[in-house]
Amino acid sequence: MAKRPLHSKIRRFLSRGLYSLLGKIINTKLKNDEIKTDHINRILITRLNHRIGNILFLTPLIKALEKRLPNAKIDLLLGADFSALIGQMPNVNKIYSINARSLKNPLKIYTLIKELNSNNYDLLISPTKSSGSSNISQALIKSEYKLGFREEKKVSFANVVVEFPDNNHEALFPLALMNAFAGEKITPEPYLDISLSDNEKNEGKEILKRLTGEAKFDDKIIIGIFRDARYEKRIADSYWLEYINELIKAGHNYILVDIIAPGSHKITDEIFSISFKNLRQLASFMAALDFFISADTGPMHLASAAKTNVIALFNKTSPDKFGPLGGNDRIIDINNKNIDEVFAETVNIINRTK
User: Fold this and answer.
1) Residues 307-354: pLDDT tens digits?
2) pTM of the entire predicted model
3) How far, in Å, CA of 333 to CA of 314, rounded?
4) Which among 88, 60, 97, 76 has a CA at the least distance from the CA of 278?
5) How far apart are CA 156 and CA 154, in angstroms?
């Protein structure tokens, strides 16, 4: 397992120090009342993270807020600029970003906080537990309501808190925050969704047609394969090559596409290959596929959010916490299984789904 880089350790140390200092000088009083929604017009969600999966995990909460507060504008403060990924979702107004490099420029941070405070937010949401960066942003940004999870024996700058739920999945526990709202309760949709438009889906289909030279795919099954993943979740290319060769040898009506991560390489000339820099365009292409196969990785969740059938090969992480959430998404635990067993399970999933 890769060690945490030095800059990350330094950032965490500084974050804890500032967090403790703010806790001593800011006295936050809990509001025991529920959040009254009749005057909630501006919302800010803070999630200072730069990983694709963690940002996509915000989409169930965003969709729930859109359903409960259809006229409210939602801004997001993230750890990277994900405007191209989720900035086109309904009710998402603006995405702000701040990253580790910003620590070298205090004036930039001050200017950003000043702009955020000028927006006069009615509701500020920290959708994670024990996040120093999100809690610091709650301390520095003005809002009538500051919503978060109850944490005993820890400094909190939220003035409305809810109990942390028993649900294990990282994308679903933020939905418990919806219990803080007064009045009619809604039933949130427990899946990822980036709200691709019909035009975006058609664009993905056209890219697929140009790539394969096929005008129609009536009797074909289009399968995208993504081989990259972080740290211990990564599956060796030698494994992927053997797996792909099994799919080729099967003789089924499969069209295989190697979706290559930027800076990586194609694995074989025997199948089609393509790469994208724009995540939303990648999602549009994914929507044109019948199946998407990968390890536990951000693009796995992106495919699920694009409503593509996902087959996830898990080797280290917990499927209960990080698995894909689509109704037809399936997980194969590849530990203690040979390639023939994994391939057979893959074909069974494809046959049952199609």
Assistant:
1) 999 999 999 999 999 999 999 999 999 999 999 999 999 999 999 987
2) 0.89
3) 5
4) 88
5) 6
